[in-house]
Structure formats: structure tokens, C-alpha cells
Amino acid sequence: MRRAVPIPLSSTALADQVQPLFAGFEARFTAAPAETAFHVAGTDFLCRSADASYSEILVRVLPVAVPSAAPQVRVLVDLCDTPLSLGWPRWSEPYFREREVEAALFATPFRLHFHDQTDFWQVFDRGLNCGLQLMRKAAGYPDWDTGSPLRNLIHWALAEQGGGLVHAGSLGLGERAVLLAGTGGSGKSGTVLAGLLHGLTSLGDDYVAITTKSGIRAHRAFNSLKQDPGGFARLGLTGRVRGKAALNWQGKHQFTFDHLGVPSQPDSLPVTALCLPHVATAARTTFAPVSAREAFLALAPSGVAQIPSARAETFRLCAALSRDLPAYRVALGTDPAEIAAAFAAFLDGTAP
Amino acid sequence: MDKRLDLAGPDIVFEEFDGDLVVLNLSTGRYFGFNPSAAVLWSALAAGVCPADLQAHLAPAIDLATFIGALHENALVVEGDEAPTPVTDDLRAQLAKLTEQPQLEIYDDLSDLIVADPIHDSDAAQGWPVRPAQG
């Protein structure tokens, strides 16, 4: 491997140090061999990758689209040893403190994330609408990246328009959808799968993109789904997606909407409510109104924690959703068909 | 009590929900829920009114000192240098109506969330994805 010239970064004058990472962007972008175009929340993205295997992941997981002649956002996935690589960032302080970096870059055009264990960098220039994902080697991404690749870059791009990704699943019926928020183990993914298997639609089980300009609207950002082995068997997925749902790094089956064999799913839907499911092993699924504050505390913490370099924006977006949407705590039943029917009735406005 | 208090920097963000307030310290990842009384006092402090002036317009039973102590203890405020802002008529009316003790509830949900969902491999202070220290 060619030895990369180190580009030192530190929390002092960080914006000036980040700028050179974009040097030669046009040439490097053009030279990257693999191209993936995708469309999230009304924004056309064009990603070119020096790692062709990474593009295969993008094609599988992102909502791919016909390349736009003028993509609003361009992302370069670059490797350390590509011929045009000018150097490699190196954090020159003992610790990389996400919050300090976020604060240092707040009023600048840049957003930055660094995963030290894989030497994995994500940088976004808000002025140019260009993103960089730097990987030390091919497939040199963190274990969890394959479920939601380019997540931070997508969020930073959408945040420029007042939207962004939120940590929530969704279920839809006809032209309306609900968001499903809650911590791990609350039943979000299982509820989404129960709905999908019984005639409802979904825009995602873990993250959805949100726009607020013309009412609150949720958009598909990722095609991935996941489920722990217990839920996978309980939902009867073992035969249905056999051989296409390998266990991911956390021991959950990871697969896509396509693997599930359900009809084509919508790209976006207006959102009518925020639902906070919890596994209640109840006789039947019930909905009870909760306060905006309670909804916010279910929605905000995980999203704010998981998307670095935009925490204050995510906090505000989650607050707007919690304030503007009616919220319900949902005690989940045990039968997937019953859960789906309860959500269908709720979405249809016929729930008791 | 006669010095104004400032929010402890841009790490402190907050949102109001029907009179309740949720405050987040971005540097620690810790969330706080304020009841409506605490929300009124917080807004006044954030506007630059000093605690002594607030106390003068509160019912004697309202324990402002304990509330201020909790704000300091949780690194939500620092003593400011600027001159305090005077109490407005509107604020005076709001303060006179307060009958509930101001309460600050601390949510450590984020820590629970980290334990509950390993994909969200977070550290409360550092955010995500940073591996928490193995116990």
C-alpha cells in the first residue's frame, strides 16, 4: 500500500485544516470508478466510489435512481491508496471528542465524523454540497455501516434544507404513515415487519428521512431491515428470505425490502402520528395518547446520539415532530396479524 | 443570588412542550425535564433576570435556592458578568402565579438505551459511534 501523506487535524482551527481534504475533489470524483445515484427526500445524490464493493452495498441498500444531470449532492468514497489521493487525515490530539469537534465546526461550512478504530472519516462541505467518505482500505467501514451507508452524509445534506434523518421506523396505509419511535427492544422493527407481512407499507424500520416544508413527510432513506433470530422465526421469515438474511455484527438478520418479497413500497408519505410501541404481550394492541414531551423523550435521545456533528439540529427537528404530531403509546399484542390490523385501523381512522 | 446566570454555553439546548421544558446538555448527553414552574424560572434566568430579583416576586414557599443549586450541580448554568435584566410586568405576573415547587427531573435514558440496543454503540458523552468502555 502506498504510504499516505498525513494531514494533521486538531480541534484548533479545524475548519482551515479540513478544507484541504477537498483539494482535487473534481478530479478524484471523476476518477473513482463506481457510480451510484440515489434519491432521498427530494434530493438527488451522486456517489462515486474508489471501492467498487462499497457501491454494491449502496445499490442494495439505498433508494437508487437514474443519475441526475445536476445532482444536488455529490459524495466521493475514497481510499487511502488511490493514485490521486493527496494525503490522509490524522487526528493529532490524544482523543477525538465528537462534541468538541461539532462545536468547533458549528459556524463553518464543514461537518466531520471520525471512527478511530477503522480510520474512517466522513466530511461534508455545506457550501459545495460535497461529501467525502475516506476509508483506509476497501471495505474499511465500521461493522454497522452496511445497514445505513453514508448515513451521516445524507443527514448533513438534508439538514441544510431543514430536514434530516430521524431514528424511527414507519408504517403506512394508502396515503398516510405513522412514525414508530423508541429505544432498542421496544418493538419497532418487529412492528414494521408485522405490518409489511400483512398488507401495510413502510419507509424503513430504523431510520426515515423527514422533510417539513409542506407538512411533515417521511421518506425512504434505506432499504435495509433487521430482526433478531427470535423475531425472525416468530414472523415466519426463515423460509421467506432463506439465504438472503445473513446475521450482522450484532447477531441480527439483515435483509432488504426486496428480499421480503412484498409489493413495491412508496418513496414517501405524509405523517399523521408518532407512535411509541412497547412490547406488552397484551391480548390486543392498543393506542393511548401521550404528551408531546413524552414523545420527544422517546424520539430524540437515540437520534441525537447517533448522528454526530448535527446534534442541536436533530434535537430541534425531533422537537418539531413531537410538537406537531399527535403521539400515542402503543401496547403491542403478540400476534403479528393482529398488530398489523390494529395499525391499519389506526391509520384508517377507524380504531376505537 | 444577585448575579445573573448564563446558560453554560452552546452545549445547553432546550425545547418547550405545552409549558414543560426539556433541556439537553450536549456535552454530557444528559436530558432534564422541567415542570412548568421550573420552565418559567429557567426562561427568566435565560433572559438574564438574576435569582434575587426572581425571589422577590415569588411566593415565599417556592424554593428557588434548591432549584438554582440543581442547575449549577448539573452544569446547566454559570455565573454571568453582564448586568441583570429587569423583571418585566409579564414575568412578574407569571412568577406571582407559581404555586408548584420548581422540579428538575434527570433522564438517564441514553445510558439505558446504550445497554438495550447494541447497534447504537454510543458513549453518553462522546456520542455515536464510540465504543463504551468494557466493564
Shape of chain A: globular
Unreliable stretches of chain A: none
Structural class by secondary-structure content of chain B: alpha+beta
Category from helices, strands and their pairing of chain A: alpha/beta
Average pLDDT of chain A, to the nearest integer? Answer: 92
| Assembly form of the protein | heterodimer
Along the chain, the helix and strand elements of chain B come as EEEEHHHEHEH
Radius of gyration of chain B: 17 Å
Most residues in contact: chain pair: A-B, 36 and 34 residues
Distance N terminus to C terminus of chain B? 42 Å
Query: Which fold name fills CATH's third level, the topology of the largest domain in chain A?
Result: Rossmann fold
> Runs of chain B with pLDDT <50, length 5+?
111-135
Please work out how many helical segments of chain B DSSP would assign.
5
| Major sheet strand order of chain B | 2-3-4-6
Q: Which band does the percent of strand residues of chain A land in?
A: 25-35%
Q: Would you report the number of β strands of chain B?
A: 6
Number of strands of chain A: 18
Largest sheet of chain B: 4 strands, antiparallel
Percent of residues in beta strands of chain B: 15-25%
Shape of chain B: globular
Written account of the structure:
Chain A: This is Serine kinase. Chain B: This is PqqD family protein. Chain B: It comes from Fuscibacter oryzae. The complex is a heterodimer of chains A (352) and B (135). Chain A folds into two domains: 6-159, no CATH class; 164-348, Rossmann fold (3-Layer(aba) Sandwich), CATH 3.40.50. In chain A, strands 9, 10, 11, 12, 13, 16, 17 and 18 form an eight-stranded mixed beta sheet that branches. Chain A has a six-stranded mixed beta sheet with strand order 2-3-4-8-7-6, with helices on both faces. The mean pLDDT of chain A is 92. With 352 residues, chain A is an alpha/beta fold. Chain A contains twelve helices and 18 strands. In chain A, helix 6 packs across helix 12 and helix 10 packs antiparallel against helix 11 (311-324). By secondary structure, chain B is of the alpha+beta class. Chain B has one domain (5-116). Mean pLDDT of chain B is 82; it is low at 111-135.
